[in-house]
Records
---
Amino acid sequence: MAKMNLLQAINSALITAMEQDKRVMVFGEDVGHFGGVFRATSNLQQKFGRDRCFNTPLTEQGIIGFANGLASQGSVPVAEIQFGDYIFPAFDQIVNETAKFRYRSGGQFSCGTLTIRTPYGGGIAGGHYHSQSPEAFFAHIPGMKIVIPRNPYQAKGLLLASIRDDNPVLFMEPKRLYRASVSDVPEDDYELPLGKADIVEEGSDITLVGWGAQIEVLQKAAEMALEDGVSCEIIDLRSILPWDAEAVVDSVRKTGRLLVNHEAPQTGGFASEIAATVQEKCFLYLEAPIARVCGLDTPYPLAHEKEYMPDQYKTYEAIKRTMNY
Amino acid sequence: MQDRNHLARVSTTHQVNIIENGLIDIPMLQILKPDGSLHEQAVEPDISEQTARKIYDTMEYTRVLDERMIGAQRQGRISFYLASTGEEAAVVASAAALSDQDMIMSQYREQGALAYRGYTTQQFMNQMFSNEKDPNKGRQMPIHYGDKELNFMTISSPLGTQIPQASGYAYGQKMAGKDAITICYFGEGAASEGDFHAGLNMAAVLHCPVIFFCRNNGYAISTPAEEQFAGDGIASRGLGYGVKTIRVDGNDPLAVFAATQHARKLALDEKCPVLIEAMTYRLAAHSTSDDPTGYRSRDEEDKWRAKDPILRMAKWMKQKGWFDEEANKKLIESSRQAVLSALKEAEKVAINPIEDIVNDVYSEVPWHLQEQLENLKSHIRLYPQMYPKTSGRVK
């Protein structure tokens, strides 16, 4: 075990993957010698050479198109998009190519070895071009997995599983947690399962579902609710697609109430999908309407960031409303 | 009728004939020597003392602004800043060759062009402090300026997005019969984006009066030019798209001015795009979030410090008898004072009222945003201490 922050855990996962499989290549803007703008790829070029860890020209569509070709050839690309907000120039390559390579070729070719890493989310005073949470756009594409860790331990285990998974994975890193804290992370190789939620805290009155940096918000809100005698069960989804509906459904059947929290705008957000599924599978168990605490349906603001965020106070109030329904 | 098929213009050869990089020589226009004298055979552009002074003063002002704002960022007073140190001549001298009616579409390192147009120190500060006097209403990070009256399009963070937009804006100017063009600034890194290729191709085919101005400054954050493009820089790409192209020494203000003057005339008279590649160097860090000591040497920077465009212009102006050392010192000092007092002023101004979180998303506020705003206001009333910047105005 070693103490690592989330960035160091990602770096450790990349080193493990590159040592274990020569086909793994890491690339993107500034990821070479410099180690990436957040330093997630530090020392990789020194350790593994410029052929396996390199800078690309500044073109997101180029990076992912190149990665698609590389993956379809049998290499194991781990491509970095510097900010989730800048993934959209690569949208066509991801939506129409990465996700559909296997399907459209009748299983002859695939991009299954590709992992796309990108920082996402707000809380860093970055304004709308450095704060978006674009998971819902990609959740609408059949053919790829979406994975979001909430702490350093998860980051390493889930990234290693993503790199080795036989499907393309979009691995979204909560950038406000990058250097927020350190925790124990095994230096050895380990994987955490994709598609499986993590029960962070058990409770009996209401189920709180979230992912990434928002889990901390749910925990704080749950502490506030506990003072009122409300027991919250907190579920970290970890994978947005495929998502662990079973874990959520089992929990709601037990608690009878559900609240979903995410930073992305509410309309068309992934909370809508969870709410629809839960009302389908738990209709007779529900004691209150499903609550959503999300970002506003506006671009992510700068000066009003604090007001925009689905923080613990908004979550706590929503818990109270659900409990008193 | 003229044959419009391009094959009619293609010459033939009967041996395998590889056209290699290096066979096409795109020379770099230089007018001023580092000592401030003119190169032999160089022609001094038609430039008045007044214009020369304005270029010089704006370059000095930009440098003062940059120094002070980097300082302000280090003190935690603003969150972010991008300096243009080393590239002042490329930006300011090109802006000086334009008409005020020409649209400027900038990337994010062109504060010199905006200052040349008359953006005030207080306006710079209001934007950077995201206060309620910021025309963007506090919605974008520091340095994302924009001013409709000064024909300076509001900056957007994603790289290269303004390049095809510039082609479209220029086409609109042409269709409206305006005596104006569009200039579009970007770095050599942004020239790797798909938008660059799309934008140049569109402009060439649709005959758009636009100047594509590439600041080839050596680095895209930490990535050096040699890892950004192979071959002969950005200029040769202009030729590939059928765009008239000029390469210029970006640290030579007279050369930049002359090149941009020529380009503007061409764009306007012939209704065509022109690409200018200004060869320069980003002496500053990419941004205040970047540390260039991690990827380049002090030696390399020093070599470029010796080519300081401001110094070169001062030497030329001295030879013309247009430079007063004392007056210049006073000007720098008064700029410093002006920046400091504007900064203090901007810091005191409140942020926008909470209603602005839903304004401008659409032309009017639709029902669902109205509802979300009402919910937010009720919540702020419940927890006023948690949202101190806005709660005072939520009654």
---
Amino acid sequence: MRVQLTINGASREADVEPRLLLVHLIRENLLLTGTHIGCDTTSCGACTVLLDGRPVKSCTVFAVQASGRTVSTVEGLEQNGVLHAVQEGFTKEHGLQCGFCTPGMMMTSVALLERNAAPTELQIRQAISGNLCRCTGYVNIVKAIQHASATMREAKAEKEPATAGRA
Amino acid sequence: MIPAAFEYEAPTELAEAIDRLARSGGEAKVLAGGQSLIPLMKFRLAQPARIIDLNRISGLAYVRENGDLRIGALTRESDLEESAVIRDRYAIVADTAAVIADPIVRNLATVGGNVAHADPANDHPATLLALRASVVARGPRGERVIPIDDFFVDTFTTSLAPDEIVTEIRIPRAQAQSGGAYIKLERKVGDFAIVGVAAHLQLDGKGSVATAGIGLTNVGPTAIRARHAEEALRGRAPDDRAIAAAAEAAAAESQPVADLRGPAEYKRDVVRVLTTRALRRAVARAKGGK
Amino acid sequence: MAVEIGGIGHSVARKEDARFIRGRGNYVDDVKLPGMVYLDIVRSPYAHARILKIDTSKALAIPGVLAVITGKDLVPLKLEWMPTLMGDKQMVLPTDTVMYQAQEVAAVVATERYIAADGVAAVEVEYEPLPVVVDPIKALLPDAPVIREDRAQKNNHIWHWETGDRAGTDKAFAAADVVVKQDIYIPRIVVASIETCGMVAKFDKVEGHLTVWMTTQAPHAIRTVIALVAGHLGLSEQKIRVISPDIGGGFGGKVPVYPGYVLAIGASVLTGLPVKWIEDRSENIQADSFARDYHITAELASKKDGTMKALRVKTIADHGAFDAAANPSKFPAGLFGVITGSYPFEKAFVEVDGVYTNKPPGGIAYRCSFRVTEAAFAIERLVDILALELKRDPAELRMQNFIPPQAFPYKTPLGWEYDSGNYGAALKLAMDKIGYAQLRKEQAEKRSRGELMGIGISSFTEIVGAGPSKHFDILGIKMFDSAEIRVHPTGKALVRLGVKSQGQGHETTFAQIVAEELGLPVGDIKVEEGDTDTAPYGLGTYASRSTPVAGAATAMAARKIREKGRLIAAHLLEASPDDIEWKDYKYQVKGVPAKSKTMAEVAFAAYTNHPQGMEAGLEAVDYYDPPNLTFPFGSYICVVDIDKGTGEIKVRRFYAVDDCGTIINPMIVEGQIHGGLTMGLAPALYEEINYDKDGNIQGGTLMDYLMPTSMETPSWETGKTTTPSPHHPIGAKGVGESATVGAPAAIANAVVDALAHLGVRHIDIPITPWKVQKILREKGVAE
């Protein structure tokens, strides 16, 4: 079947079997290998991508279901050579070790901060509870997201007066 | 893990979906959120020849309160959790949505799928039993409203005809002096319930229990309505004694079996403990608390 | 200056993060080669069965299926068995009998991953079930079915190992005032790193050359093993290149050679095509190497005043169907002999018996330096039981008994020489930081109100850094490790190591060691690992040995460079080499700070203006054989609250004081401790692999194998003391596993402490809510 989707802003097409999992479309057909596979049971979240802006586990979605929709993966976070605040946060706060869960964890974090700019620690822990990490013990992941939250809010605060000025 | 091959259809009209389902001769599976079905397919425990994907059909995802509360079958759990009307007026439903699987799974998982899958470990069924909800199904012969008490037949088996699709959940409108709560004990976040208890109470003018609804998750072949426990509360002030009696009755009505989530005896006792806690929270909410 | 260098002691941001946060890591499943085909494995549904027939015809009829490999196909190649590190042998594919559920039965090679999976589903195998033994204690009974008919010895006993003074220990027990005894079962667990195992094998028929990309923690050892196992097929070591790319977590699970690897290589040789094999999660949990599964009976003898005198331990070790533990050759029970822990026992005796059962093979793969977790758990539980017996505070009893700081180096009754330690300081710091006295008050108040709160301590001693080569080898290969440093003319450096990071941040920490030793900025130093064609030979990363061994090799290699540099600096400064000193990261003429040369200047001269008669260039290699192991230690204090209705345990606080000697990168060390603590929490409360009586695994997916999420995991609190190792060039001891070794006992001790007033002395891990609630009901205190 023909699948057409927008991934990280680019329109892509592929001819696939209906049973092809979205994660395999992303990794094998579109060669975006930043999205990983860690389990078969929607337990680990290593394959988390944003589907129309919401985090989903791409090993539990058929590629055909994503046709006509928008997918964002870790490869799309950096824009024009500028890291996303979440990427900055993860490296500054040592929120990753082996790096395998990291792309999925970051995609969940990006979606969280878009919905809730200033989450509490509990809200962060709840939001990432579908993403398993075997290395970090989560403490520094929480800090990484808090770091990103703070920088994103600062950036917004800097922008907003200018916007107000124009209005 | 790789699913077996299948043919895929994604109709844009409900009528078309029903028609295709009816003509599939039982070989098709309906795909909603897919968060239970796709893992089963990856393990090849389910190998449907045909998948009818409902996700291209518009108008099946909504939460509306007009008369009763109506939840479209394709409403995602995360939308349910965030719905203002659910949060403000149907706290028991918000409780339930918030503990299903994990937050990412909830972005795809649907209310209709949770109910239609009829897994005794799923969380909505107990809550819907407590709330005396009904399930709306559409098939070639038109629409049916199935009282929830008649919906669950056995594990993974409902009273839906093979060519019927769940389209909506209806919950009686929240009344003053009513409240409910769902409490789930899980081995870890994201897990199915060891035990889940849904309790809903309608108090009368004197503060006694007019009607009670109690549903139990994962302690029987289907979600169980604890009728004796409800009985133990009716007409009584919901004090510690009445609650204790109801909790004992619920434990007695539960039918747990030993598995990786603990021995049967343990689960039975947890039914008692969680029923107590859920009823206390329901009373507090019926009296205007959170 | 020091900050710019980014040397030892600085929380330098990790170099490896740049690719990981962009999704540009290169893990095995990311490797894609032209013409690559896929391998998938048929596995046994039975724990013990005779294979009557394997019908591959339906699988072979699927378009795209290229081959189905069975055990019989491997016989002419003499590849149906492979040797294990413990002198046993292990099936690659069975020719006759399967011995555990999920064992490999056949392999399907196909053009696509999905077709390979279809092929696996289409292979039909007829089995005749055989009697199953899952309990190692029953396996030792005379009438138990014999699992390994291939052995001369017709029973399930593998080996007996003992250490210490049996008679002296018995005598000490007979004379003791107080003896406490406890049966402790430490259940089977698996690491389940988020990346499963896998390989891409590419055999070049023309050159006879094999390249493998592989999830391995020990690439060089693997290359040698391949040469030993398949040398008769022409795979000689110079024609084998093992590449360990980015590894998504190892924790010991990526040390062993699994049949899947051998099959992928075999399939590439057979088809002449590159072959990819990637495990799925169920295979990873159900068939890969396990850890623990120790049935321990431990006894401690003490004086009435609490002075610990003697320790006696008997253990049955379940090794599954093959003894494929990855221990050093002479240590079938690993370093379990560190069980005397932090206490100066006069006498000790430990014996372990290895047993076959119908379960997957393995033995140490869970962030544990060769059975040290079992040892630490047993001794730290036993000390708490003694405290209960003597009605003593467990902190105070530990303080009374600790090996005192002045006793180091300290020789244990089981033969280890602890390098350095200050156990009392670590425990005191932990007690101060968590507010121990206040917590005890709170507990007493809560207890009087009927609430259940517990405080648990674990003051463990680790043993890492294998090892001195006179005692430690793997397949005869001495357990040294290596570093090679090349300083380029412009003062930049390339460092290559025999170890292999799986998330520990080697690209950063090893650069920091070199930065410190050579005065080059950490950003100018590139670290490479994991390619046997380029890296010096080393034994790999496991058992917390990278810093103790390869870290030492790195410092020693750097010092060789510094020494040569001194001669060059003398030449440049027109001074005698004896007058040149290394100070403030520079070569200086003694007493004349103005006359100095940087390493970069010296490096340039090494290629452009070196002294006559000296070899050009500035590089060095060091193969480091440590004089002793290192002995990191720590004291952990855990606070738990227990729900009296459901039996749920909530870890409210956990304060960890670790002492791993000199710290290279505090940020990375803290991260290692956080992760290690979480892998200590997991088996204490959640993780367990169980089998029913027929050998069926109970819950072989991540739905039932309960890896803690962010919600179960507490916000770990950490602190440190620093007691350098006297024999390590930079005083570092290694830290990767300490927290996993130390944490389970602290948590179990806290839970038991919460229930101690009810007469509870021990609960086997994982301490599930139902185990707790059963006790509460029996004691009449349940809600």
